[in-house]
Design brief:
Elements: H1 4-25, H2 33-49, E1 73-75, E2 85-86, H3 89-100, E3 112-118, E4 121-128, E5 131-137, E6 143-145, H4 148-151, E7 169-177, H5 180-192, H6 201-209, H7 214-220, E8 223-230, H8 243-253, E9 262-264, H9 267-280, E10 288-295, H10 298-304, E11 314-318, E12 323-335, E13 340-352, E14 355-361, H11 365-371, E15 378-382, E16 390-394, E17 419-420, E18 428-430, H12 436-447, H13 459-467, H14 482-486, H15 493-506, H16 511-517, H17 525-534, H18 538-543, H19 546-550, H20 557-568, H21 570-581, E19 603-607, H22 615-624, E20 628-630, E21 639-642, H23 648-655, E22 660-661, H24 663-670
Parallel strand pairs: 2-11, 19-20, 19-21, 21-22
Antiparallel strand pairs: 1-6, 3-9, 3-10, 4-5, 4-7, 7-8, 10-11, 12-13, 12-15, 13-14, 13-18, 15-16, 17-18
Helix pairs in contact: 1-2, 12-13, 16-17
The chain binds 2-(butylsulfanyl)adenosine.
2-(butylsulfanyl)adenosine (IVH) binds at residues 81-83, 115, 117-118, 122, 138, 175, 227-228, 292, 311, 314, 316.
């Protein structure tokens, strides 16, 4: 007999599964976010009280598991083939000609399915009795890596197929990819954290899928389009007879199938489709590098079969790459906020993928050496979805006789100090803490929108402040007077006053944004938020060991190490003291949290382990609604929130007749006033 609780858990899973399918796959939400959150929490609570009710297809299992140490290699039952490429419409004609000869009799016009070729990373998903049991990478096509924990975090991969009677086993294949918006956001985060950028969404998707920590995968929001289905014989439902029907079945199973697919009644229609998307694809929210054309009927696919390497029944029509030759006029070196020294080529301006490009990155010393770049060389540059154009290769046959090779400088072009390149690292760095380029970068980062958001403190002004010696540290900004500022070039009295006001205003930014603004390596705004939720003051963070820091959910050991190390440097400790002296928020007590809210005036104490919320989360929620959280129970305490293993505080509260809430009651209290969010 199924208990009422088990019944409810099942019902919650169904409701949540349906809602997230509508939200993510259909892009047509029907459930309000708040309702979803409430049902999700109810399921979480049920599952934490009855762990035996957790099923692998429960929506709570998407959040990502603890890091793995390595991936296990898995053999594909059916190899993942790659495709032959076609680069012109004639190539498509020839392709058809080749397999038409293999087909018995004249079949007239052949039917094709055109699908956009998504530039991501192929995945093979195995479902047993409708439940996702394995997700694997393509690998070499014969065997790949088991990345099931990562695949579970993809919201558009169903954990359970939407079929009444699923087959005993089915394998679904498709492309995992990073939508352009997520790719750009990811790179912005990485730039802000001083980490190397991903060159393009494909690398970012492939790199993400191979993350050992599934929580990182969950945060990056990969998406998935399904395109192939391997169904064994013996399923009691009608099997698809064509690629078009297979795509429809995939869609019914709950997968996202690319909506731009088209059934083409002839090769002419295929060619028209390819032409249409050659420009149309530039408006899509994800990257496509071509069109995959497949012979529609499965019986014909079987008849034409495979070559040594490829299926004969499919081909990838590739759009011409956005690669253009141009000349290198000069090579300059850019010194970033983290001291990273990046060589950049100044080019004769050319049009690439719709924009004019006059500079391209050369990445680092290794890349420079590999290219063997000479000043005056003609190079091929590329910009295909990448945000930064890059130099792909040198056309050595066009090299002028007197061209001289270029080498990375051994000294920082900004401060003249020797640069260093740590063993095993690709990046060359200036490590002079008072290098003006590093200071300028640090100031600009500090002023940026997600950090202290200081209106009017732009690149040009920062340069002047540093050159004039008016600002030597972040704290110096807060000592600037309107008179000093007004004396700078192109700076009127009014703008000087505005800037002083903006600086004044920025003193109120919360501790999380101050931490982000410090520009510690790997500490982007998300990590800063996580860290400050856990370490409510700079003292606590500075005193924490790397182990304590990496104990924060979502913070890995590399980040923890970087944070810990930052606080051991005397100059940084000094900076913190100076920032304190000029009135920045270095703890959450002073943050600009709302004091108005329906819990305003109420004091809470939290004790014991709550089933789903951490204490910091519970505190944050109470504070969001205007309440206050203190450490010890007294007659002034309004509520005690108690979880498991609550000790003396619970006794004391009971003695003082203070109402005691469990997590669910706290949640109810928090949502009691729907006008609050
Ligand atoms: S079909 C035998 N369909 O392109 C069928 N592949 O060069 C092989 N790809 O490894 C794949 N979108 O990663 C197919 N709609 C699509 C695709 C697609 C992207 C990728 C896939 C594959 C590569 C083939």
């Amino acid at each position: 007999m199924v208990s009422e609780t088990a019944q409810r858990a099942l019902e919650l899973r169904r409701l949540l599964q349906r809602a997230s399918y509508e939200y993510y796959v259909l892009d047509a939400p029907t459930m309000a976010d708040s309702v979803y959150d409430q049902l999700y929490r109810e399921l979480q609570t049920l599952e934490s009280q009855h762990p035996e009710l957790i099923t692998p297809d429960s929506p709570t299992q998407r959040v990502g598991e603890r890091p793995q140490s390595q991936f296990v290699s898995v053999r594909h039952n059916v190899p993942l083939y790659s495709l032959e490429n076609a680069f012109s419409l004639e190539d498509l004609q020839n392709w058809q000609g080749r397999f038409q000869k293999l087909l018995a009799g004249d079949l007239g016009d052949l039917e094709y399915v055109c699908e956009l070729k998504i530039d991501g990373s192929a995945l093979a998903l195995t479902y047993e009795n409708g439940v996702l049991v394995r997700g694997a990478t393509r690998g070499d096509g014969q065997s790949g890596e088991d990345i099931t924990a990562n695949v579970r975090t993809l919201q558009t991969v169903p954990l359970r197929l939407q079929l009444e009677e699923p087959p005993a086993v089915v394998e679904v294949r498709g492309e995992a990819f990073l939508p352009l918006a997520s790719f750009e956001r990811l790179n912005q985060e990485r730039a802000a954290a001083g980490e190397p950028l991903f060159a393009n969404p494909r690398n970012a998707a492939a790199g993400t899928l191979r993350q050992l920590d599934a929580r990182i995968v969950a945060a990056r929001r990969l998406d998935f389009f399904a395109y192939t289905l391997h169904l064994p014989q013996g399923w009691n439902q009608p099997l698809p007879q064509s690629q078009w029907q297979a795509l429809e079945l995939l869609s019914r199973m709950g997968f996202r199938v690319n909506p731009e697919r088209q059934l083409c009644p002839s090769l002419g229609a295929v060619q028209a489709y390819c032409e249409h998307w050659s420009t149309g694809r530039l408006d899509l929210p994800y990257l496509t590098d071509g069109v995959v054309v497949k012979l529609n009927a499965f019986n014909l696919q079987e008849e034409v079969g495979f070559t040594q390497k490829f299926p004969r029944w499919a081909i990838a029509y590739k759009y011409p790459a956005e690669e253009v030759p141009t000349r290198v006029l000069q090579i300059s070196v850019n010194v970033g906020r983290t001291g990273a020294v990046t060589p950049v080529a100044d080019l004769t301006p050319v049009e690439v993928a719709g924009t004019t490009v006059s500079r391209a990155t050369l990445h680092n010393a290794d890349r420079l050496a590999e290219l063997d770049l000479h000043l005056g060389d003609t190079v091929v540059i590329r910009k295909a979805g990448e945000i930064i154009p890059e130099v792909l290769r040198v056309l050595t046959e066009l090299r002028p006789a007197d061209a001289v090779p270029y080498h990375m400088p051994t000294e920082c072009p900004e401060c003249g100090q020797p640069v260093v390149r740590p063993e095993g690292e690709a990046v060359t760095r200036c490590i002079n803490a008072s290098c003006p380029a590093i200071l300028r970068g640090a100031l600009q980062h500090w002023a940026s929108r997600d950090a202290l958001d200081i209106d009017g403190l732009g690149e040009k002004l920062v340069r002047q402040l540093v050159e004039q010696g008016l600002v030597k540290t972040l704290a110096d900004l807060y000592r600037l007077t309107a008179e000093q500022l007004a004396s700078l070039e192109r700076m009127g009295k009014k703008s000087a006053q505005n800037l002083v006001a903006a600086l004044e205003h920025s003193r109120e930014r919360p501790w999380s944004r101050v931490l982000y603004g410090l520009g510690i390596r790997h500490v982007g705004s998300v990590n800063a938020q996580l860290l400050t939720e856990h370490f409510p003051s700079v003292e606590q963070l500075a005193a924490a060991t790397p182990e304590q820091i990496s104990g924060v959910y979502g913070i890995g050991s590399e980040i923890a190490q970087a944070v810990h190390q930052w606080f051991t440097i005397p100059a940084n400790q000094d900076l913190i003291e100076q920032l304190r002296a000029v009135g920045l928020q270095l703890g959450s007590q002073e943050t600009n949290r709302p004091t108005e809210g329906h819990l305003s005036g109420k004091t809470f104490v939290i004790t014991g382990t709550l089933p789903t919320l951490s204490r910091t989360e519970a505190k944050g929620l109470i504070e969001q609604h205007g309440g206050k959280v203190t450490d010890s129970v007294s007659s002034r305490t309004d509520y005690l929130v108690a979880g498991e293993k609550a000790g003396s505080k619970l006794d004391k509260a009971q003695k003082l007749k203070i109402p005691v809430l469990d997590e669910a009651q706290l949640q109810a209290l928090l949502t009691a006033n729907p006008s609050e969010s």
